[in-house]
Design goal:
Length: about 220
């Protein structure tokens, strides 16, 4: 579990460039007009929303796995494919993940007006609620992490892995400090992004290998 948690952190860190594009605007807006407590509140609740989604999905997968024994290996294959797709996206070679984000956008279409209402409020609680809702923002990186976390452990451990993933995204979202800006600058360098993208695709291939071999043995 410790190795998986570290891997989840690195997955979030690896996708920091994508995080900047998806969440950088809202994070910057909150940072400019808010207290430290509001910034922390937003990010803590964002991580909690990832954990909550993982709990819901993990619980559903755990129930289904009693009836469909192949579901966990298939989900792990999906996770591997999504990780490879994320690497290709980061290299700007293939943007198929945008189609997945478009599907998630249907749910976000109903949530987004609520975040707009909360954005105008100054209380820590309203920012906390906004962070909870922001976790549902359609994002291929989050989908990849969720599929990986749930396929790795379809129980409460999946929620812990998603918190680790969220921790990995913090340097890019909390990039208002000197250290944060340094990390962001490093992650946005082309050589760094390419290295991360190739590493993510290799991790995706490794994720694919075990369930494929398991399914082959079953047959």
């Amino acid at each position: 579990m410790t190795e998986a948690f570290i891997a989840a952190i690195f997955m979030g860190l690896a996708g920091s460039g994508h995080c900047l594009g998806m969440c950088g605007g809202i994070a910057a807006a909150i940072g400019q007009q808010s207290s430290v407590m509001r910034v922390l509140s937003f990010n803590v609740s964002r991580l909690l929303s990832y954990a909550l989604i993982a709990l819901i999905l993990g619980g559903g997968i755990e129930l289904l796995s009693t009836e469909f024994k192949h579901i966990i290996p298939l989900l792990r294959i999906l996770a591997g494919l999504l990780l490879i797709a994320m690497g290709l996206y980061m290299l700007d070679w293939w943007r198929g993940l945008l189609a997945l984000e478009t599907l998630g956008g249907r749910l976000w279409h109903h949530i987004q007006p609520l975040t707009s209402q909360l954005m105008g409020k100054r209380s820590v609680f309203s920012t906390f609620l906004m962070g909870l809702l922001w976790g549902f923002l359609p994002c291929g990186l989050v989908y990849s992490a969720l599929a990986w976390a749930v396929s790795h452990s379809a129980d409460s451990s999946a929620a812990i892995l998603m918190i680790g993933f969220g921790i990995g995204t913090l340097p890019s979202i909390l990039g208002t400090s000197l250290a944060g800006q340094t990390i962001r600058s490093f992650l946005q360098q082309r050589l760094t992004r390419n290295f991360i993208a190739y590493s993510m695709m290799l991790f995706g291939l490794w994720t694919l290998a075990m369930p494929v071999m398991k399914l082959l043995k079953m047959h």
